[in-house]
Specification:
Largest sheet: 5 strands, antiparallel
Shape: globular
Structural class: mainly beta
Number of helices: 1
Distance between the termini: 32 Å
Helix content: under 10%
Radius of gyration: 30 Å
Amino acid sequence: MKKFPGLHGLCFFWLLCWQVSAHAACPFTMSLAPAQFDMGTTSTGTFQITNSGSPSNIIALRFRINNGDHFSGTTTAPAGWTVAFSSASGGGYNTITYSATAGGITPSGSVGFPIAIIFHSLSADASEHLRDVRATYSAGCGGSANSTISNLPAWTLKSLVVTWTLSSSSIGPGCTFTLTMNIANNSTANLTGVTSANKPPVLNVVSGSPTASTSANPTPNSVNLNAGANGNLVWTYTAGTNPGTMTFTASATASGGRTSQSVASGQISIISGVTCGFNATFQANSPACAFSGDTVTFKMDVTNNISPAASLSNVVPSVPVKTGTASIGTLSSPSPASIATLTGGGGTGTFTRTAPVTGNADSTFTITAHATDGNGSGSNSTNDAPSSPNPQILKGYPVVVTPTSTVTASSTNVELIWTVTNHGCNPVTKVSVPIPTNPTNWTWTGDSYSLVNGFEDWTAAQVGSAVVFSAGTQMPTGSSGEFRLTFSTPVTTSGTVSYNLTVTDSTSLAKSSDSYSLAVTPFDTSPTGSNNTSPGTWREIFQ
C-alpha cells in the first residue's frame, strides 16, 4: 500500500481547523427589552445575554455604541459583576465593560444587563442598534478567548413623548373629569398637525365595569410643535353609573414618520357615594428632596363646589392608606381635626399630617385619603386623593462594595472598591468611608484611588476612624464614583462587616448611604481552599 506521508498531517490539520471553527464561535445570543425608546431622554434597556453554545463561562462583556447615542455613567452592574466605562463622549461613554466577580455566565445560563443610554434626537423615528458586543470566556475558543456577536437586536427611537394627567384619581357616578395628553416633540424638526392616533383614547377596564363618555376629538384637535416644544390635547369625560377602575391608552402621531410609544394613563375609579364637586387634592409634599429618616409633611386640600351651592359641616379626613416600598412611620393626627364649616361655591380647607419615612434610595411612598362631612357620617364624600408626587421617590446613595465575600481572614493588602451612585438632589463633594472595626485589625496606610465621572482628581485622607474622599470635580446627580482603599494589615478574624458611608453634597448636607455588608471568610488551607499552599504537579501544553 502506498503511503502518503503528508496526508496524515493534512488530515490532522483539517481536523484541528474544524475543531477550532466549532469552538471559535463560542456562540452567545442577546435580546433587548424594551425595544422602543424616546429621543432626547436617558432611558434603560435590559440586554439579556445567553451563553448558548460554549462549554466555558462568559467572564467579561464589552458593549460598544457609535450611532450618536452614548452609554450613561449612571449604569450599574448586576449582582456578581462590576462595570467600567471608557471612550468618553457626549456626556457619556461609547464603551462599557462588565467583569464577573464570581463565575460569570455558565453554559446555557443567562444574565440581564440593564444599561442606561443617552439617546440623541433625530428629525424622524429611526431604527438603531449597538456597534457590537464581545464576550470573553474562561477558557479559549479554539485559540481565542473572545467572541463578538453579529446578530444585534434593534430598537426604535421615537420622535414624540406622551405623558398623561387626570384631573382626579376617583370620582362619583355621573361626575365629570378631564384627561390631558401632553405631547413633547423631542425630534429636531418643527412639526404641524401633531395629534392623537386614538380618538378618543382607548378605555381599559382594570376592575369592575366602569364606563365614561366623551367626544371623539380633543380640544384642540391638534397642535403645532417646534423642536423641543410640547402641547396639550384635552378630553372632558362624564363617568358612567357603574363603579370600577379604568385607565386610558393612546399614542401621538405627526406626518413624516413621527410617532410616540403607546402609553397608558394612571388609574381613575368611579366610586359610589362620592359627591360631584366635593374634591380633595394634595399639595406637593415637603421636603421635595426627602432622604431616609426625614419627616415628611402631607397637606390635603378640600374644596366645596357642590351644585347647587350648599355649605358642608364638620368635614373630617379619613385615615390615610400607606403604599410604596419605603416605610411610612406613624402619621400625626390631622391638623385641624375637623373643619367646622366649608362654605358652598368654592370654600376650601387644608388638613396637615406628618410622618417619618425610611427606606433605601429609590424606594417609593404615597398616602391616599379622602374627606367626608358630618364628622364622617354625612352623605357627602370627596374622591380618594393620592399625595403628591405619586409616588414620591426617596433620595439617597446606593452603594456596591467589591468583593462582597472573597476577603479571607489573615489576608494582607486587601483592596476594597466602593461604587457610589448619586441619587440625591445635588452634586456630591465628599464620601466618608469608615474603616471596618469588625473583624479586627483593618489598617489603612494611605493607598487609595478614585474615579468619579471619568475624573481622578479626588483626594483621600484619614479623619478619625474614617477615610474621607474630597472632590476635585464634583459628582453630578445621576452619576457614579468608584472609591478604592487597600488595607495592609492582616484581617485575622472572620465575620461580617455591615455599615454605611457618609455622603456630603454641595449644600453641605451629609446623609448616610444605603447600608452594605462584607463577609470575611475563615482562613482555609484545605485542598480546595483559597489559602492552600500545597505543591502540585502541573502540565502546560503549547500549540
